[in-house]
Amino acid sequence: MKNIILISLIATTFMFACNNQKTAQNQPINYPETAKCDTCFNVYFGDSIAEPYAWLEDDTSPQTEQWVTAQNVVTQNYLAQIPYREELKKRMTDLVNYEKFGTPFVKNGKYYFFKNDGLQNQNVLYEKNTLDGDAQLLLDPNVLSDDGTVALKGIGFSNDGKYMSYSISRSGSDWEEIYVMDLATKKLADDKIEWAKFPSVSWYKDGFFYSAYDAPTAKGKEFSNVNENQKVYYHKIGTTQKSDMLVYQNKNFPKRFYGANVPDEENAIFFFESGFNNGNRMFVKSLTKQNAPIIEIASDDQYEYSVVEMTGDNFYIFTNYNAPKYRLMMGDIKNPKIENWVDVIPESEHVLTSAGFTNGKIIATYDQDATTRAYVLSTDGKQLNEILFPTFGSASFSYDKKEKNIFYSFNSFSFPNTIYKYDITNNKSEIYIEPKVDFVPENYITEQHFYTSKDGTKVSMYLVYKKGLKKNGNNPTLLYGYGGFNITYRPTFSTFRIPFLDNGGVYAIANIRGGGEYGEEWHIAGTKMQKQNVFDDFIAAGEYLISEKFTSKEKLAVLGGSNGGLLIGAVVNQRPDLFKVAIPEVGVMDMLRYHKFTIGWNWASDYGTSEDSKEMFEYLKSYSPLHNIKNDGTPYPAILITTADHDDRVVPAHSFKYAATLQAANTGDAPKIIRIDTKAGHGGGKPISKAIDEQADVYSFIMWNLGINKLNK
Predict the structure, then answer these.
(1) Phi-psi domain of 83 (left: phi exceeds 0; alpha: psi -120 through 50; beta: other)
(2) Which residues have CB under 8 Å from 406's CB, separation 6+?
């Protein structure tokens, strides 16, 4: 049992004191002295844990706002001393300024695609009546705000082709508002839905189902308080949100997600309940029978179940039920329970990542050592053809079971996102849209390496660098990792990395445990009481890069975001000698209290919580980045922490408390600074202007502290 000791916070004051920290130019950094509460602590199973910076959890208080301002002044003063920061920003701006296209998709006989002219803050949605016809602007999110901080999060189309729903978020928040457009007139309807989060919009007849929360009652806490009691509603076009019908809730489990999905057939609605275990529960209700009951058809929520298609009475489920590397199964709406499902695509050696129906066939994608492979199959699961890609990378398909045209996108480290049109009859791909980027892809090399972790496990790692690089142990190297929540990291393209590569850099991604690269077993091997495997895998990746003479301890930087921010914080505490620079972005840094904010409770399936048991508490405490910072003079890397004021997924208090603790500790002279963005969130929907500013700051910090004194032209 966890006991909370109530205290009164001490008055917050700020002083600037020289803590004998120095910049790369050997100038002292005057960190803001953060007020401490000496009587703040929490008790876990009899163990008292000090909380000297608990007051920073109140992210809207005047004291916290003053602290944020003071920290940003210090950070910006430091970054301003880097002589090529503005030059790097200009180069990044030039590189990202090219036309970018999304994969075309078909809805109700019309073609849709997203496009960005180059430096537009948000991508714009276009419509075509025919594939070769003229494109008409349908929705431009850039006109919804002056600074690009209103982002389009999702769209959906009614099955009769009359309406399009779209959801937006403001300032990077996960909260969404849903609107409706009349597609004939292109005018906005009066409909508006508020306080939706992960809304799972699904159209049915003249309305749609969606998920939402009650409006927050605590003013000023909309971005930090725990989110509870999500419900599924039905909204009929032309009515107000107050009149929406409540169709599904579960009062027994307030800290779970609830969503609905109606296939195009509109003969059934599937409900999903998730957020406690690694998967979800699944229910179905017939829409052809009046007063039909809701039937639970899959109850074991350690597995994932999602409906990918429905044809007549048959529904197709993508699942890892008794199949760690996933399979496609088929059920019958007349006998829908899981014991009646049959295999269509059985589990195989590699991880099945998607399956879609088109032209009477199935296109299935797999992860093979964290790179996409794609195949055409018959509807009974027999392989017909492989769709070949140019190199290691990531592919995404767009198709409709009623349409002949199939499109997919492909990209890799040095291969910009390219749109292909695929002829399924002749198994032939042709470039449909090829981007024009200001660099030569052929000048870069992508390799896959395999290294051995601490316990003997083989781990994949991708590297990219410019041709001519010498393995002399002296190359600036940036190692990225995530390792959580069954998420796979494949080679992908980003113009922001190019200046680093052009200045002799090596970029690497380690496919560590906790991710989904090798299926659910790989994921589970990096969760809860096995989380240390994630850190060991990442540390071993750094040691491998050094042993293979790509780099050295003095030239190795590490970066990760969110769960990857936790990774960076943990490995820096465990092996501060191994890295020269560390960038924990929007990280989960307080492993004892993470579940107390917004949707943090949803991460317990990966982490466990400090309330579960004494053993779980002790394990979390043993690696929590906030609680394991050394204070004995051990030199730490140069650290730049990043977060944002509207991050309501991993609340900024994680980074605030971590930064304050680092700055107060005796960890050597390297800088320990924090960059706190405004009108921004966890990263989704960030306008390109803010992305450029952030990446210029991050990369200039990395490159400067790795000893790059000037930029190559």
Answers:
(1) alpha
(2) 358, 359, 363, 397, 398, 399, 421, 422, 424
* Distance between CA atoms of residues 88 and 371, nearest Å: 31
Determine how β-strand 124-128 pairs with β-strand 136-139: antiparallel
Distance CA 450, CA 457 (A): 10
Q: Could you say which DSSP state residue 5 is in?
A: P
Instruction: Report the alpha-carbon distance of residue 512 to residue 623 in Å, rounded.
Output: 17
Strands (E), 220-369: 231-236, 245-248, 257-261, 268-274, 280-286, 295-298, 305-311, 314-319, 327-332, 342-345, 351-358, 361-367
Nearest by Cα to 565 from 489, 481, 509: 481
Is 173 among the residues known to form the active site? no
Per-residue DSSP letters for 567-597?
HHHHHHHH-GGG-SEEEEES----TTTGGGS
**Cα-to-chain-centroid distance, residue 477:** 23
C-alpha dist (Å) from residue 637 to 25, 394, 558? 16, 32, 10
Summarised one tens digit per residue, pLDDT across range 29-56 is 999 999 999 999 999 999 999 999 999 9
- Cα angle 163-164-166, degrees, rounded to a multiple of 5: 150
Residues constituting the chain: 713
The Cα 638–Cα 24 span in angstroms is 9
C-alpha distance from residue 225 to each of 220, 441, 670 (Å):
9, 46, 35
Distance CA 354, CA 521 (A): 18
CA distance 216 to 196: 11
Phi and psi torsions of 516, nearest 5°? -110, 15
563-574 and 653-664 helices cross at what angle (nearest 10)? 20
- Tens of pLDDT, residue by residue over 491-536, are 999 999 999 999 999 999 999 999 999 999 999 999 999 999 999 9
Q: Which of 562, 624, 655, 700 is an active site residue?
A: 562
Whole-number Cα distances in Å, 342 to 162, 264, 336, 479: 36, 22, 11, 42
Beta bridge partner(s), residue 666: none
Cα separation of 181 and 391, whole Å? Answer: 40
**What is the distance, to the nearest Å, from the Cα of residue 481 to the centroid of all Cα atoms in its chain?**
12
Residue among 398, 453, 682, 700 flagged as catalytic:
682
Task: Please tell me the distance from the alpha carbon of residue 41 to that of residue 50, in angstroms, as a whole number.
Answer: 4
Question: How many CB atoms neighbour CB 513 within 10 A?
Answer: 29
Contacts of 660 (CB under 8 A, 6+ apart): 34, 53, 56
Environment class of 394 (CB within 10 Å of its CB; exposed 0-12, middle 13-18, buried 19+): buried
pLDDT tens string 254-311: 999 999 999 999 999 999 999 999 999 999 999 998 899 999 999 999 999 999 999 9
- Beta carbons of 71 and 13 less than 8 angstroms apart: no
| Whether residue 682 lies in the annotated active site | yes
Cβ(200)–Cβ(271) below 8 Å: no
The amino acid that residue 287 corresponds to is L
Q: Which amino acid is at 497?
A: R
